[in-house]
Amino acid sequence: MVRTTAVDPDHLASLVALLPAPADRPGGDLVAWLRRGEGLVGWGTAATVRTTGADRFAEADAWWSATAARAVVRDEVGEPGSGLVCFGAMAFADSPGDSVLVVPEVLVGRRGDRAWLTTVSSTGLAGPLDVPAPAEAPEPPAGVRFADGHLGPDAWMAAVAEAVERIQAGALEKVVLARDLVATADADVDVRWPLRRLAERYPTCWTFHVDGFFGATPELLVRRERGLVTSRVLAGTIRRTGDDARDLMLAATLARSSKDLEEHEYAVRSVGTSLAPFCSSMNLPEAPFVLHLPNVMHLATDVTGVVHDSATATSLALAAALHPSAAVGGHPTDVAVDLIARIEGMPRGRYAGPVGWMDAAGDGEWGIGLRSAEVDGPTVRLFAGCGVVGDSDPASELAEAHAKFVPVRDSLGE
Question: What CATH number corresponds to the domain at position 77?
Answer without folding.
Answer: 3.60.120.10
